[in-house]
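Hi everyone,

Forwarding the result from last night's run.
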Amino acid sequence: MGVPAARHDRRPQELSTCRTVHYRPAGGGRSPPVIAVRFYRIYDIGTEIDLDLLEQELSRSFPTARTRLVRVKPTSIIVEDPPISIQMDAVRVDRGGRSFSFAVSARVYDIGAISFSLVYEDPGADYSALEDIAVLFSEQKGLSDLYRRYLDTLGGIVGAFIKNFAIDADFYEDYTVYLTDASCDRIDPVPLLTGERTGISPQQRDEILKNSLSYTSSDRVVLSWDSALVCGTEPSTDLTDLIEYANVQVFELRYYDRELTRQMERMYDDIQHGKDLWWFRRTRQYHAIMAAQMETSAEISEIIEKIDNLIKVTEDVYYARVYATALKVLRSGQWSESVSRKIAVIHDNYSMLSDEVRIQHSNFLEWVIIVLIALEFGLAIWQSI
């Protein structure tokens, strides 16, 4: 699996060649677990990352490898710049009188996202144990302190290699994926996806289960806005990675939607402040606002395009359906429209300020002309005396 540290192929890579940097030596292989739970939490560091450079720097202290997924064919799922995966120390969590051991990893994406994954696997558990875990860790209760600790640890590992490394620990996206190799008809997805054992009405059950997809009669993927169930013989890691990519994309849209909101608030404050200035200083203020607006708009438009093209599912129809459904359930379209609207508002304000500056400039020139004409008349009268 290992490759030389100096090998950095900049061509688009398939999802099956996602890069991995091992922070802790991984254990030996074993048969797939009967049940597994993956708790995801995604953060943003506010800047794009050169993964080739980061990988090169990390490889001086940690071995570099490339891992392959199971099912995908070459070119069927393409990632322009596969994320770096860092395997971190495992952790034990006591909850509800039970002890759970989680494997922990983090993925660093070139668009500035960092995704943590806490994975619990139990090859000897009964399928009903998934429901117990779903209730115990509903909405990822009791895991926030762990994520913060690993966030600090990761910052110590990669922060020195990323310019302006900073993370808002209170702004994140979380998602939970339940996995089992059980036949789908043996599992009720509703308690897993809701984290509740209360009786759910038939109408609500239909709403929860409406985003279900299957490739064969023995497998199933059920997607909801904060969790998913993957069951059956289909290789689950491929599907969980697709779901993770969809979450990363939607979270990044949320992040930049928030950044645009902040930028617009500053813009309106600056415009209001400019109205109280003398006209020459007001013109300079408007020029500064316009420059900041266009810089922000260009940067965010570029990163939004990268977010939209983070992953391309081309030939695999089933994976394309799972990926598209995940984006729909996570309301990707709404966040994308919100970002587009705010960029359009910034452009409209740019045009408005540009017209205002042009009018002020025209008024200034008119006054200059009037003064010159007056001086010319004055000079002519003075000479005639």
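The two ends are 99 Å apart (CA to CA).

Cheers,
N.
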